[in-house]
Amino acid sequence: MKTGKPQNPFLLSGYVSKEYFCDRESETQKLVSALVNGRNITLISPRRMGKTGLIRHTFHKMETEQGVHCYYVDLFQTDSLSSLVTKLGNVVLGTLDTQKEQLIKQVVTFFKSLRPVFGMDPRTGEPNFSINVQPELAEQSLEEILSYMEQSGKSCYVAFDEFQKITEYEDKKVEAILRSYIQHLVNVHFIFSGSQRHVLENMFASASRPFYQSTQMMNLGSIAEETYFEFAASHLKAHGQTIDAETFHYAYQKLYAHTWYVQMLLNRLYEEKISSIDMSAIDNELIDIVDDNEATFQTFLRLVTPAQRKILRAIAVEGKVKEISGRKFITAHHLGAASTVASAVKSLVDKELILDEQGTYSVYDRFLGLYLLKKS
Questions:
Q1: Where are the beta strands (DSSP E) in 212-326?
Q2: Mapping DSSP to helix (H, G, I), strand (E, B) and coil, where does residue 363 land?
Q3: Residue 2 above 50 pLDDT?
Q4: What does pTM read for this prediction?
Q5: Are 203 and 167 within 8 A, CB to CB?
């Protein structure tokens, strides 16, 4: 956990302290209350809305105030049960024992299926290790790690971020395997977090799936504008800068209240040290951001079909589209047959280039949307 004061208070990744974390008070309390009362949580929101920050803030609060053990496990780059177990094991092992000798003894004797790799931290000189999970023993290793936490006598909380990744594993039994072990735990509780709403809702709300109705569902939306303005104005004021509510509203609406993109804009404005931030400064900074990313955006657009590019531009012009297969939208932008539009939209949603918020569509990357609008 970072403890130093960041150079720029508008963080784009990681977690430092509540001073640099904006609001989410009700969401934090909701998570804490559910977890300490034994309810697992499914946390869903679009990518870059602030799920990871909320989880880390909640875990920091719980560890500080309650002395529990919390573990964050990002599954985005995993592709199998063994890679999932490796990530879980490397996060968990070593934290429930304070003595290094006890830790080594535990690894050697308690975990029959793991291959510990011992080493020395070059900075501290302290012994450390990582684990190597054998694919054929992954399920046994999972059971051992969960048993290790359960039998520790300490309350443990695990967040599996981008949990929908397990549906892409070649082994389609992973969902059932995880559920079979998790359902019997008393001292270990979970947050299953992800950005693909339809996939996660199907996993946890479909009667045919192993995790059916096993969690409390929680959707994470935007940070309230007034609260976000107070947070931004306070940090800017401490830096000798000012921004009024009307100007912040302009920026907030232009980026559709999407947390990371608002945060990136504020980060850049803080760096520029503009004494009085007005709408012109907002526009100029957004132009600079879009220009900086032009090569990346061009690459994105080369990876989609001409029909998909046309739909992306049409959505960017409209901002948000509710009836995306409706005659009015299709005719206004000369998009062709409704069936072609529906197929292209599904592909763009799957590629996370379009965001589907319960039937309202927008360009997922808010800066890409501004680029498309600029080029229209």
A1: 216-219, 242-243, 276-277
A2: strand
A3: no
A4: 0.91
A5: yes
